[in-house]
Amino acid sequence: MRKAMLVCLAGAIWLLSFGFAGPFNQAPDIPPGKAKAEKAKSDAPLVKAQAKLEKVVEKKKPAPVKAKAKVESKTPVADLLNAVVEGVIGDVANVAVGAARMAPAAAMVQQVEQQYAARFRQLYRSEMHFMRIVCQPTRQQYEKILAAGDPEVKASIKKFALMTAEQRQGRFRADAPQPDSRKLIARAITNLVKVHLSSEQAARYEKELDERDVARRRVVLLNLLSGIDKKVVLTAEQRDKLQEILDKNWHDSWNQTQLLMQGGQFFPVMPDDKILPVLTDTQKNVWRKVQKGNVFFGSDLDMFQGIEMEDEVWSEPGAKK
Amino acid sequence: MERAGSEKMSVTPCQASAKLTPSASSLFCGLLAAFVLAAPAQAQQPDDEDVPQAAAAVVVGQQQFTDENFDQWIFQNNGNFSGARQHLDVLLALQMEDIDRVCKLTDAQKKKLLLTGRGDIKRFFDLYENLKKKFQLAKNDQQKMQKIWQEMSPLQIMLQTGLFNEDSLLFKSLHNTITSEQFQHYQALARERRAFHHRASIELVVNMLELNMPLRAAQRRELVTLLSNVTKPPRKSGQYGYYVLMFQLAQLPAGKLQPLFDDAQWKAVSGQFNQFKGMRQWLKQSGQLPEEEDDDKIEAPTAAQER
Questions:
Q1: I need a surface site. Which of A35, B62, B170, B271 has the fewest CB within 10 A?
Q2: CB-CB contact of B102 with B189 (8 Å)
Q3: Mean pLDDT of A204-218
Q4: What's the pTM value of the predicted model, to 2 decimals?
């Protein structure tokens, strides 16, 4: 059975190296000069993952017993294949599985990028509009930031796609923080605002983002608490205690809008060792049976309605109508 | 011999893959497909012990529905009849504990309330038994099964959200069982709890709007205040709080909401409201609409306001 697994594994890897590893094999198509530099920048997360993969493959690779046919090492998949070939006598499965965990298939990343690109653009426009009403830039300043933001958006999409592809390939950990698309975009705009606007305008924008984070955290806490209350019928005093406990033990994996929408039917991983002492025996009995932590509802981008935003209207330079 | 042969096979494809010859591709595809396809096929092979009694299994098209299937659909995480019974008993104990904490019940009051709570559980299992009888008659008729699915849904929701809501015998009998002073205490607490759930839903709704169009902190605060003033919590506590609120929001005259947003923001958020305008019938059927909305008392937007 183990042998059959190894054969299939090798087959899968070989298929990946041809049919699914497109972008890794496209190095010769990269145009020279600036475009190449830009592509390298936007591929940075992939390259990083590739480096990690290579490191793991290198670490796990057993010393060669004899000379073997070797694939020319141009791609991470080829490296993986080489590791498999050289490790047939050793723990091949461990090498392959361990390495595969490090980087999602490029095709999957590309698919996620394509799927969410339009929504990311809309998200970017809405966040730029928000920046405009907060910072009140002139039209020229706004357009400079808009232009400079393009590669930043691409990098954000790539980052988001990498995290999402990981999850889609079954590498979802219930306690892992969820990719927050708007935060990625807002962070990118913050950097640009600092470059192109005054420090006072940048501080105004950052303050709004901080307040948004606080509000978001409050929404998550309130709704988790409301969900617990629907399950175990808390007293006002218990609610206060639990709110404090949840706040102190905050986990980024709780930040899933679609989970909160279910009105207390599903729960993320919770600090039960801290929650249970607050509950009565009957409440404990109910709470212990509530399933927690094994649900991922999808990205907040799936909730994005995709309502088209028109181009910004400028009545006079720097003034918002 | 067979083992040796298979061992040879397991090495040869790896070596072939290293050379990346075209013949290897078909070999790997075949092996991979065989492995992938074989796994589920093997999993589907019936174990003699698992084959249900012929009498209990009836074919509907390609599917066989059994009484066990029916119980799983209804009881879900609770597994079976006794699991569901235990679950409901614990929920009743939870409600009794809550009422006792606030009202300091006498033994006689406890006994009476427990009895009515058990009446709720019995009512649920009566519904289950009735539907199961219908299922047994309909399980070989696909068209009739469509109706059974529809009737199954309320039972599933009852079990998920708990039986002891505002429509339960337990709550309806409260004012006849406890003193008016106790009842006032209890009502105040229940109101406070509903308000807490409502506040959580309001903040979630505002957050959902912000997924499409972020708001400034001041706008967020104003919107939360407005929603707290003009919307009502759902009639029953449950998982539909978000939908009930969005529906109420969609019914509000544009004049009340629009001043909180600029033009671009309003376009984005009003687009979201529109998606909830047609939910009245569904929310009404599931008994979620607050009283006023149920009675169609909510102010309908005029054509001018709509524009």
A1: B62
A2: yes
A3: 95
A4: 0.67
